[in-house]
Amino acid sequence: MAAILSATNLVKRFPGVVALKGVSFDLVPGEMHALCGENGAGKSTLIKTLSGLHPAGTYEGEICVDGRPVAFANSKDAERAGIGVIYQELALVPEMTVAENIFLGNEPRRACGWFIDWEKVSADAKQLMDRFGLNIPTTAVVNDLGVGHRQLVEIAKALSKNTRVLILDEPTAALTEQEVDVLLDMLRDLKKRGIALIYISHKLDEVFAIADRITVLRDGQSITTLEAARTTKNEVIRHMVGRPIEDLFPRRAGKSGVPRLVVENLSVEENGKPRLENISLEARAGEVLGIGGLMGAGRSELLMHVFGAFGRRTGGQVLLEGQPLGPAHTPSGSIHRGLVLVSEDRKRYGLVLDLSIGFNMALSSLEEVAVGPGSFGLINDARERRRNTEYFDSLRVKAGGLETVVGTLSGGNQQKVVLAKALMTEPKVIFLDEPTRGIDVGAKLEVYELINRLTDAGQAVVLVSSELPELMGMSDRIVMLAEGRVGGTFTRAEATQEKLLAAAMGGETSLN
Amino acid sequence: MSTAVPVHPVLNFRALAMPAALLCVGVFFALKSPEFLSARNLSMLAIEVSITAVLALGMFLIILPGHIDLSAGSGVGLIGGLSAVLIFEYGWPAPVALLVGLIAAALIWFGMGTIIVRERVPAFIITLGGLLVFRGLHWLVIHNATIPVSRGGETNLFSLLTTYYVPPGVGWGLAALVILALAAVAWRKGLRAGTDREKIFLQTFVAAQMIVLFVLICNAYRGVPLPALVLAVVAFVIYTLTRQTPFGRYLYAIGGNEEAALVSGVPVAKVSIGAFLIMGIIVAITGFLQTAYAGSSTTTVGTLMELDAVAACVIGGTSLKGGRGTVFGVLMGALIMAALLNGMTLLAVSPETKYIARGVVLGLAVWADVRLSRR
To answer: For a FRET experiment, which of A42, A274, B39, B323 has its CA 20 to 30 Å from that of A247?
Structure first.
């Protein structure tokens, strides 16, 4: 079949780096084509080039639609050619309704052309939902929808523009398993309607569940294109990293020592709504405590509260190294006491994106490299730079240097900067909330190795993850949360996917 | 210079654009009025720039974490008036009266900062309220009259603030000290591996030349005016705060991403309130200088100064959203604003035209900034 979209030898240079060094691939109608590659392999740059965000003239090589070369000046041009993109960061206006969002910027007008035809907006939105079998009220305000539904609204929005090529960048990163199923079903349906899809995901299970072909990118080059039916996960991973990977979860359990963090009967509310009830757990030196649960079970809320950045305590206590922590404490106080948190949302809670790697790395522990009283001490530049360089090298951050602006880095490298910032505080207890979300296989392995090094050094690691294999692979003990309560506690040996899921669904469910 | 503090990609271009803009302003007024470049007028300009720049540097600390202070101008009038009344009507010694004004300002701004930060009321609203309240208090304190800064025309610490000129010899001595200090800093920086020694040398050399030129001009009149020294000290303190202390880094971090700063362990509330407290002290210093420059506290002292301060910051490349800006930029911005005002006054431009010109310059500067940052 003739390619609907093809790229030949794309080369895209940025000041200091070549992001694409010759990428070629093609897409035929009704095909699901997955793009796989480590962070920094060039996937995002490729999408931006295909969708007109990097305008013609800023890259070399050729992009063809229906066999004819095109030169998009902006994303509107690409949209007109039928190419729509769903980005990792959803681009909906939270205060507007579903229908308003779908037609934002494309509102049908009344005859005179000045006023929006609101009746047509809602009628068209409903029709669109019906056509694709979506069960989302078009009058709902986006703020009230879950992440999964928002994703579907984004897709509906793209489809309202007669999209023939739909590009999805990590669409399932924030979705629960049920939501993923709904999304995948919808994508299969779109395929049947002849829409070509480009699917970017780090989750190879999903890729194999849905993709027809897989193109692997590495270091800005297209390495190979494989038929999904005739390849294996291991082969794809091998192409991605350029070497075979033996052990996906290299947890080396050591000896667990004294309890470093003890949570006893903790209850927390926010804005009058109870969020956590009667939670007890402990994290020991040299041990990884895994915390699992479905979306909304209160995993992040638990970490954020103990850290001092969420909710109001209504009962129970938290002991850090035997001393009470909170209830009225701040993150800065927790960090001074030896507790640090790496948030699941690194762009919101982790980084000052416009500033440099060095600025971000040192932010949590500036007073350690300053001479003088607290915030008003004088920073010793040489000492700061030495320490930054040490962590930059040991975590193998891939960037031009400490001066590079963090916002320009790939997800995995951004995560390393956040980790460096946390480690520089020399914590005794470290909270890792989804530390491998949206990062590639190679960087994941590095995070796992780092966890091993931390526990070897006697630190206690609390790991929150929504991926059960990761939770089971990396934790020494696992606490499953269900609706703000402890649904079950398991040792590494006891844990099976079935038991964990049952505990996550409410705990009382029979295990048989 | 510290490595980790942000250097905006367009900063280098800007760093040239601002002196270029200043040069244009200077050449224009010099051609229109020969008086502009006279030693006397340049000395007056030095005083005016110093006053504007001191307040702008305080405003810089407020804008960095993403706040704004609209009450600064009224505060300048109030604190200057308060100290003047204590001296003129109650016969307090000038140093005590000034100290009381300083403490009052620090407390007031600490209070406003606390309400803004702890109660999460937008700074725009609280300081807009402050603008009105302080203006009212100012007029109340001076009973809508003209209160001289000293009794019977005698000189005191207050009046000397803008009438004292450092004797030429002392001026040269200070200049030599500053140049030596600059050279020492440059030499230490040059020792570091991988630094651009040529650039450091050039920067230091140009700075030294500027200082020599400045002292030369001032000495041709009466010597270096005291406000210029006040500005030098304030600028040095603010520069050190923003570049060399955790406090300054925290201001950039809060302006860049407040939530991330909080989770990173930045004591967001304390730091932001601290910025307001420092602003209070700076408002007091500006109030003393401005009132002394006017000779007495009147109902118009300080009017609209907050806007000149904001304009100086923005012209100097400070982002109103917070997280971006430099002390050098703010100083250049203040210089441009003050030169513009001074030149227009010399040319006897009508007040209405002055307002329009200031507004247009501000608009143009921000527009240029937005264009440049877009690359």
So the answer is: A42
Cα distances (Å, whole numbers) of residue A126 to A122, A123, A132: 6, 5, 10
- What is this model's ipTM? 0.86
pLDDT digits (tens, 9 = 90+) for A408-439: 888 889 999 999 999 999 999 999 999 988 77
Per-residue pLDDT at A247: 63
Which of A:308-347 have CB within 8 Å of B?
A: 309, 330-332, 334-336, 340-341, 343
Where helices occur in B257-350 by DSSP H, the ranges are: 258-263, 268-294, 305-315, 327-346
Angle between helices B246-256 and B226-244 (to 10 degrees): 70
Cα first-last separation, chain B: 25
Q: How far is residue A336's CA from residue A327's CA, in Å, rounded to a whole number?
A: 16
Is A441 in contact with A240 (CB distance < 8 Å)? yes
C-alpha A99 chain-centroid distance: 27
Measuring CA to CA, which residue among B229, B225, B231, B289 is closest to residue B53? B231
Mutate to test the interface with A, among B250, B263, B277 (most CBs of A within 10 A): B263
* Cα dihedral sign, B115-B118-B119-B122: positive
Q: Give the tens place of pLDDT for each residue, B210-224.
A: 999 999 999 999 999
**Straight-line distance from the first to the last Cα atom of chain A, in angstroms, rounded to the nearest whole number:** 50
Q: How far is B359 from chain A (nearest CA, A)?
A: 29
| Cα–Cα–Cα angle for B293, B299, B302, rounded to 5 degrees | 50
The span from the CA of A328 to the CA of A458, in Å, is 28
Element (H, E) at A233: helix A233-241
Residue B29 to residues A173, A185, A306, Cα–Cα distance (Å): 61, 72, 63
Beta-carbon contacts of A328 under 8 Å, excluding residues fewer than 6 positions away, are: none
